[in-house]
């Protein structure tokens, strides 16, 4: 299995063959295949971990996007006991299994929750239990693993990763025992390149049949197989310290959707609430002032260096920003433009004049008036302190608040997407 052929995500011929086979099986009325993500609200490590923002997307959103874009499932579900998780799941297009209190305890097992789900959904024949904390899962992982069931007759398939770690027997404190090796001979210690390593479950997903769950009471059994994932895709978030590490891994190896990452050529950015923190300082002499973070001006210069034009937006309702327009233009090298209550009406002319499409545009806003532009832009973002209506419309939610590095953060995200697009072209 370790030498199993890997099909590239872009191998349409193989994907079409798999989809056709699945559809033929369904047409015969034999199998309903469901994806099920377990997302309890009572995480002990990180509160509401499953919907915490990771690289601008709720954690659970990464695996739901992969499941839906695989086009292999008749239904995609989230099993939860929490209202906020239910809202996020539905916003991602998933159905919700509202689990009972009996399977929502700290001591409840995944198997018990899946058994409850299966009993309430008798049409389901094959279940793929996807772990919410595996944000680097891609559709092709699920497609290839499902093929092992639909085309090759396996009853259960689970994901593994290859590890090259020498293991030793644990010795309890106070014991007079000595440790001993469990998977190597110290006298003939192999080089990494001479050792195949060991296969370990990475927890990303478990495919299994209704029969195994209901009649055997297990997730793994029958004709059993594993699906090997490369280490870069095997990310599991257990504790908060993993979060920044996982975020960097996701930005590099995560699945961002069906389309090629956008290459931005023009960025619009609101001054008030994005470049500034939204506060107005009044001096003793009654002068009004705002503060600008040097991290944000550095982020703007980073984009300009990569030939991304940046335009700063002010409004008639924000006279302070208007007074700063000349200073902002001089300090940032950006054109500063006044927009009306519907920024889209003014910016549409700019986009057309530069012979661009909205997919070539990045937009950073922070309020209800920005919603249309946030939806239109190929890449869009809001600071962490933006209202919910703006957050829901944006494609990326920054960790930082307005005026405190949010623009720099979004600039780094834009440039990373540009690098991803270049690598795909190569």
Residue share in helix: 25-40%
Runs in which pLDDT lies below 50 for 5 or more consecutive residues are 1-27
**Estimated structural class:** alpha/beta
- The percent range for strand residues is 15-25%
Outline: elongated
Question: What's the multimeric state?
Answer: single chain
Task: Describe the sheet with the most strands.
Answer: 7 strands, mixed
Can you tell me about this structure?
With 426 residues, this protein is α/β, with parallel strands linked by helices. It has helices at 12-27, 59-69, 83-91, 110-120, 139-150, 210-216, 242-253, 271-275, 294-305, 319-323, 325-332, 343-353, 371-376, 388-393, 406-425; strands at 33-38, 53-54, 57-58, 75-80, 95-98, 126-131, 156-163, 198-209, 224-229, 266-270, 281-282, 288-289, 309-315, 335-339, 361-364, 379-382, 396-397. The strands form 4 sheets. The chain has a 7-stranded mixed beta sheet with strand order 5-4-1-6-8-7-9, sandwiched between helices. β2 and β3 form a beta hairpin. α1 crosses α5 and α9 runs parallel beside α15 (406-425). Mean pLDDT is 86; it is low at 1-27.
Name the descriptors.
disordered N terminus, 426 residues, alpha/beta, 7-stranded mixed β-sheet, 6-stranded parallel β-sheet, 17 strands
Write the layout of secondary structure elements.
Layout: H1 12-27, E1 33-38, E2 53-54, E3 57-58, H2 59-69, E4 75-80, H3 83-91, E5 95-98, H4 110-120, E6 126-131, H5 139-150, E7 156-163, E8 198-209, H6 210-216, E9 224-229, H7 242-253, E10 266-270, H8 271-275, E11 281-282, E12 288-289, H9 294-305, E13 309-315, H10 319-323, H11 325-332, E14 335-339, H12 343-353, E15 361-364, H13 371-376, E16 379-382, H14 388-393, E17 396-397, H15 406-425
Parallel strand pairs: 1-4, 1-6, 4-5, 7-9, 10-13, 10-15, 13-14, 15-16, 16-17
Antiparallel strand pairs: 2-3, 6-8, 7-8, 11-12
Helix pairs in contact: 1-5, 9-15
